[in-house]
Amino acid sequence: MRLNNEQVSVLKDVYRENDYPSDRLTRDSKALQVFARALGERLGVPLTAEEVAEELLRVRKDKKRTGGLPPLGRSPGGPHLN
Q: Which residue of 8, 40, 70, 82 could cross-link 47, Cys pair, CB 3.0 to 4.6 Å?
C-alpha cells in the first residue's frame, strides 16, 4: 500500500509522537506493530507492520516528494505509543 500525501502527513505526525528512530522501529517487531496499529487507527484503515515499514523507508528516502521523515528528539526510552 502506498500512502498519499495526506496520509504521509499523518504518518509523520505519528512518527514524531512516537519519538523512536525509523531504523530501530523497523527492527523492533513489537514497536512496529504498535506503530502500525496507531497509524491505521488514525487513517481509518488496517495496516500491516510490513506495509508501514515499507512506507517509513520510502518516505525517509523520498526527500523530493514527501520531504523525508521529521527529525526526532531521539528519546532513549523507546516508543511512546501504547
A: 40
Q: How far is CA 40 from the centre of its chain?
A: 10
C-alpha cell at 71: 527529525
- Domain limits of the chain? 5-61
- Put simply, whether the predicted model's pTM sits higher than 0.85 gets the answer no
Q: Residue 70: which of 2, 28, 29, 11 has the closest Cα?
A: 11
Displacement of CA 59 from its chain's centroid (Å):
9
pLDDT along the chain (82 residues), means of 10: 92 92 91 95 96 94 77 65 58
With CA atoms as reference, report the closest residue to 41 among 26, 52, 30: 52
